[in-house]
Amino acid sequence: MGRKQQSITASFQGERGAFSEEAARLLLGPTVEVVPCPRFQQVFERLASGEVDRAVVPIENTLHGSVHENYDHLLNFQLPIRGEVNLRIVHNLIAAPETTYAKVRKVYSHPVAINQCLRFLADRPQLERETYYDTAGSVKMIMENRPPGAAAIASTAAAAFYGARILKRSIEDDRRNFTRFFLLSRPGEAEPAAPPGAWKTSVAFTLRNIPGALFRALSAFALRDLSLTKIESRPLRGRPWEYLFYADFLGRDTDPACRRALDQLQEFTDSFHLLGSYPKSV
Fold first, then answer.
1. CA atoms of 53 and 82, how far apart (whole Å)
2. Which of 13, 58, 117, 203 qualifies as a FRET site for 218, CA 20 to 30 Å off?
3. Is 229 a catalytic residue?
4. Which helix (H) or strand (E) holds 9?
């Protein structure tokens, strides 16, 4: 008999049943072996050290905005982006099987998840809100400790994994709530295959503080009809009132037009980082 193929491993932040685990399975398939980590930095460290094959991290949410800590880690660890997925975030009110909806008096979850369910909670003033470090972790806690009258806000996957009961489904305020996740690998590994035109590239750069610097930088894309899908600035640490820019555009870094655009962009930058070129999420 042939040797059994080893499953690919991927680190993510949170407990089992987290939205990041769901994103990992969408990106890498249902047989991926997931490795939960308490903090985002550990997700990057485990990939950089070779402990896992891939990492999956959230990078932005349509309601909450960018996850700036992970942008910082992308620059610090230099782990290339190899893919992305946009995951619809559905929040549910979850409790232990013996807890009925009428008994619920306290709701635990990550503060971002609580803030995305404010209308549901405002209509139920009897529910006390308690922040917790992780959505799936809050389900794990109420199933292990069984605090009376407790419920959590988390995913359907978290309820299934810990054997909890969903009391109310889809309690988020905005149904157009999506989180974008990146798939990361170590440098030097083969890039994924994708059809022509179905690629996206992410870069980070700083500019000289002179008039028209940003206009000149962005002209590198406009002159070649390359579509920018995101541009964002953040304060540059150690250099007050100067900024670091992140940009995504459609195209692969090896395409001739994209290559010329990146070469021209670097003529105007003080620093430049190619964060990754990867198949675009549908």
1. 12
2. 58
3. no
4. strand 9-13
Six-digit token string for 178: 């999506």
Whether residue 13 is predicted with pLDDT greater than 60 in this model: the reply is yes
Q: What average pLDDT score do residues 198-208 get?
A: 94
Set 181, 205, 245, 268: catalytic member: 181
Q: Give the Cα separation of 59 and 231 in Å (integer).
A: 13
Task: Provide CB contacts within 8 A for 197, sequence distance 6+.
Answer: 250
Give per-residue pLDDT as tens, 84-143. Answer: 999 999 999 999 999 999 999 999 999 999 999 999 999 999 999 999 999 999 999 999
pTM value surpassing 0.70: yes
Q: How far apart are CA 4 and CA 1, in angstroms?
A: 9
Residue 42 — φ and ψ, nearest 5°? -65, -30
Find out whether 205 and 220 touch, Cβ atoms under 8 Å. Answer: no
3 state DSSP class of 257: helix
Which residue in 179, 182, 201, 206 is the catalytic one?
A: 179
Asked if 61 and 176 count as a contact pair (C-beta separation under 8 A), the reply is: no
Query: CA 79, CA 58: separation in Å to the nearest integer?
Result: 15
254 is catalytic: no
